[in-house]
Amino acid sequence: MRIMKLALAALLIAGACAAAQAESTLRIGLAEDADVLDPTLARTYVGRIVFASICDKLFDIDAKLNIVPQLALGYETSDDGKAVTIKLRPGVKFHDGEKFDAEAAKFSLERNLTMTGSFRKPELAAVDRVEVVDPLTIRLVLKTPFSPLIAQLTDRAGMMVAPNAAKEAGDKFGLKPVCAGPYKFVERVQQDRIVVEKFADYWNKDNVHIDRIVYLPIVDSTVRLANLQSGGLDLIERLAATDIPAVRADAKLKLLNPVGLFYDGITMNVGNGEAANTPLGRDKRVRQAFEAAIDRDAINQVAFNGEFVTGNQWVNPESPYYQSSLPVPKRDLAKAKALLKDAGVALPVPVDFMVPKGAENQQVAELIQAMAGEAGFDVKVRVTEFATSLNEGEAGRYQAFALGWSGRVDPDGNVYSFDKCKAPLNISGYCNKDVDAWLDQARLTSKFEERKALYEKVARQVLDDEDIIYLYHRRILVAHTARLTGYTQVPDGIVRVVGLELK
């Protein structure tokens, strides 16, 4: 049965790509399907991988996490920190032929700020208005100084969309995105493939060597690897940690595994609808007991061969913003039982634990289920498709949710939208006025020591309140065929395609 499953997957991939055999085609295996392909409305990590080929940003980051120009050439910040002037790259076109200039950049940024359902609005909340200085210069006038601004523009908030196409499509723009990246959108079949082809008028076209890219969502990591080994795929993201030895032993494959900006954890519903009205949602002692029952080291060893990095914060222990005064706690079963006794709850405490489909996710969930069970919890693991889990989480139809975050180069991007009252990604329903004030203050200063001190206050509060239990930080496990050259892995996990060649 297993052999038939692998063979069928290989046939499906071959069929999806047969039309492109005459061209150089890069086939990338994704761990799940992307959500909407609109930078303003999108929210998934895998979507960011696809966007890297179709939607250039004002800025990008390099392998050392330095911010580098992309569609911008550079920027200057005023002495009072309340205006940022950005010079734009000349000679850039969108996929539909429309010119990229200051008016187009203004349109994209204002769309992020005003479009209904925008997930970029809180990322640019400090922007009061966007001014056109000259055809290739914009000025962002800020309500207050905003230290994470340029870092925000290295991601979806900085992606530029074609104004005419966006106006015409409205909220349907994500069905056929038009941007200014190295590849233009061709087609999408949900849960099957996304196809893009080389854009002849790309501003850096001399560094684009592959004609077509086919992104194939394959949830089963074993199937992804089997197709890489057989030649059906050229690159896969999120290799299972348990498959690392097989890749290292295969001379035809290459492995990249830097520690990423990611975190994985458990989001607790503490204030998002009726599902928060449980012992777990009402009483932080119950959530603290749940965390005390978890053995992060054991999870890392059993599920990930010890390859990942355990953690208890929104940045990994290698980050300069990591609070070493709040170290990763060890499992303490006696403490967990004492907390439940102190909370006066009836045992066992029922917990609806929503987990996105995937072998690793489900294994981690089962380990947590067993560990928490020893403390007095009755954990029911509810496996859902990834997109469904996001919708359920946003609607508050969960008690605990195994959810990760792909991470940002500035710590603000890892905590603000999750712990700020009523922020779009705050699906836990957490709200603390002191935390809000500290998060806002950290945006006002660019001094490292001041920001770190403010984030320590945030960490002490939210780690005590337990709206998110941080568990570990993934290594970015990308494997590709040796015939693919020019590939560099940046710690954000994004698959960048400019400069790649297939030998």
Instruction: State which percent range the strand residues make up.
Output: 15-25%
Number of strands: 21
Mean pLDDT: 94
* Number of helical regions: 16
Low-confidence segments: 1-8, 16-21
- Shape, per Cα inertia axes: globular
> From the coordinates shown, what is the CATH architecture of the largest domain?
Roll
Estimated structural class: alpha+beta
Strand order of the largest sheet: 8-9-10-1-11-19-12
Helix content: 25-40%
Topology readout:
Elements: H1 2-17, E1 25-30, H2 45-54, E2 59-61, E3 67-69, E4 72-77, E5 83-88, H3 102-114, E6 127-134, E7 137-142, H4 149-152, H5 163-169, E8 183-189, E9 193-198, E10 212-217, H6 221-230, E11 235-236, H7 244-248, E12 253-256, E13 263-268, H8 279-282, H9 284-292, H10 296-304, E14 309-310, H11 333-343, E15 349-356, H12 359-375, E16 377-384, H13 386-395, E17 400-405, H14 412-419, H15 433-444, H16 448-465, E18 468-473, E19 478-481, E20 484-485, E21 501-502
Parallel strand pairs: 1-10, 1-11, 15-16, 15-17
Antiparallel strand pairs: 2-3, 4-5, 5-7, 6-7, 8-9, 9-10, 11-19, 12-19, 13-17, 13-18, 14-18, 20-21
Helix pairs in contact: 1-6, 9-11, 14-15, 15-16
What can you see in these coordinates?
With about 500 residues, the chain is α+β, with helices and mostly antiparallel strands. The protein folds into 3 domains: about 1-35 and about 180-260 and about 475-500, D-Maltodextrin-Binding Protein, domain 2; about 60-165, Dipeptide-binding Protein, domain 1; about 265-475, Roll (Dipeptide-binding Protein, domain 3), CATH 3.10.105.10. Helix content is about 30%, strand content about 20%. The protein contains 16 helices and 21 strands. The chain has helices at about 1-15, 45-55, 100-115, 150, 165-170, 220-230, 245-250, 280, 285-290, 295-305, 335-345, 360-375, 385-395, 410-420, 435-445, 450-465, and strands at about 25-30, 60, 65-70, 70-75, 85-90, 125-135, 135-140, 185-190, 195-200, 210-215, 235, 255, 265-270, 310, 350-355, 375-385, 400-405, 470-475, 480, 485, 500. A 7-stranded mixed β-sheet has the order 8-9-10-1-11-19-12, sandwiched between helices. A 6-stranded mixed β-sheet has the order 14-18-13-17-15-16. A 4-stranded antiparallel β-sheet has the order 4-5-7-6, covered by helices on one side. α9 packs antiparallel against α11 and α14 packs antiparallel against α15 (about 435-445). The protein is globular, with a radius of gyration of 23 Å. It starts with a helix and ends with a strand. The relative contact order is 0.16. The model is unreliable at about 1-10 and about 15-20 (pLDDT under 50).
